[in-house]
Amino acid sequence: MKLALLSDLHANRQAFDACLAHARAQGAERFALLGDLVGYGADPRYVVQQAMALAAQGALLVQGNHDAQAVRPQPAAAQQAPSMAALSAAWTHAQLVAEERDFLAALPLTAVVDGILLVHATADAPERWRYADNAVVAQQSLDAATQHPGVQHVFCGHVHQQSLFYRGTGRSLMRFAPVAGVAIPVAPHRQWLATVGSVGQPRDGDARAMYALLDTRAWLLRFERVAYDHAAAAAAIRATGALPEFFAQRLERGQ
């Protein structure tokens, strides 16, 4: 099976469409969305509706922190100084209809399929929204995930960058910097944790969208970068008249 792993879509219609098209052209047979379908971007309804359609076709989905915030945004009266994320959550909540909010609310924090654990943040405490951006946190997440029988691979998002950790001969994890488009053997005799990057808001200085493609027949993992019309996505944010300008600039800079 070729499984396309997409995370942190962040209501970016243009990036999501580009990644879906790219993955299908690469032979993707199933999709997994690893959270943060919404937040920051201008098209939350479109992205959620596409996610609902994919779920009906057998896609795997987990909830991200921005999804949870959009379902139940913190009241402005409870905030001393609302953050940009909080402003985005309130705006997104108002855009979504009840069915779409219910869909986000019902998403699980983790999912397990065929020896693979999917989570937005970390498997040890998914509700805390920790970043698996270093070997210590990645190891804690992998240790927790591999308590599930048969699980050798963990895929997560939240970090907005692409990285791969694996357990060598000792207990400590080793970090590998992937190259886009180059397949990496991830045989299940080892244990692996990958952050698949962000479809809708890359933060490594490269504006191209990110996702990963896993071939479970050959156990090959390929991290992908996909060019898309980020200028149109930025223009859509500005056209809302409500979302911060910084969100548009971030897409243009890729950071």
Automatic annotation (TrEMBL):
Record domain Calcineurin-like phosphoesterase: where: 1-217
Gene Ontology cellular-component terms listed: cytoplasm
GO molecular function, one term: phosphatase activity
UniProt similarity note: Belongs to the metallophosphoesterase superfamily. YfcE family.
Pfam families referenced in this protein's UniProt entry, alphabetically: Metallophos_2 (PF12850)
Gene3D superfamilies according to UniProt: 3.60.21.10
Native source species: Extensimonas vulgaris
Coiled coil spans: none
Entry superkingdom: Bacteria
Designated name of the protein: 3',5'-cyclic AMP phosphodiesterase CpdA
